[in-house]
Amino acid sequence: MDEKEHLIEVLSGVRKAILTRNILSLKDLSNQTIHSASIYQDTDSIAIAVVVYAMSKIIERREHENFNGCEEFCDKSLKSIDKALAALQKDDKKKFSDSLNNITKSVNKLSGNLRRYIQDVMRKSSINKASKIYEHGISLEQTANLLGISLYELASYTGQKEFSDIEQNKSISVKDRIKLVEKMFEK
Predict the structure, then answer these.
(1) Which residues contact 137 (CB under 8 A, 6 or more apart)?
(2) Do the beta carbons of residue 138 and residue 158 sit within 8 Å?
């Protein structure tokens, strides 16, 4: 599957997940996009990952707190995703990028607490997704530059995070290490 097909599949899934308010699906789709964004270091894929993760957080919190204008923001975002999907299917890269940027721009048009809340969610989503890209082996500096966040923010976040759940980062016990060394010196 090429990258275009993957993005179409992801955006279609995002659309469905937003309509059904499936938070777990949104987070999973965001992580899938981060994997390919790490490979290609494509800013559009990164933007999708951040926006989708932020949408999951906004929908999740919307269920618990009543923010005026949140429903409208989600509807506008869904329309922008539809436009991005249509542009992607027509190979119109400019309209695709513009549609994704419209979601971020629409945050600035919100009022008061909702704007601050969604801006905060988007910022934290950027940092979270940056840490996921970093987990894929991209340097901290390069990752920070890709997402437009400070190296300090990213380093602070990744410094607090446990990476031991990543298979490559799991360490073997001292007992197993000794057995391994003993095996190496057996004749």
Answers:
(1) 38
(2) no
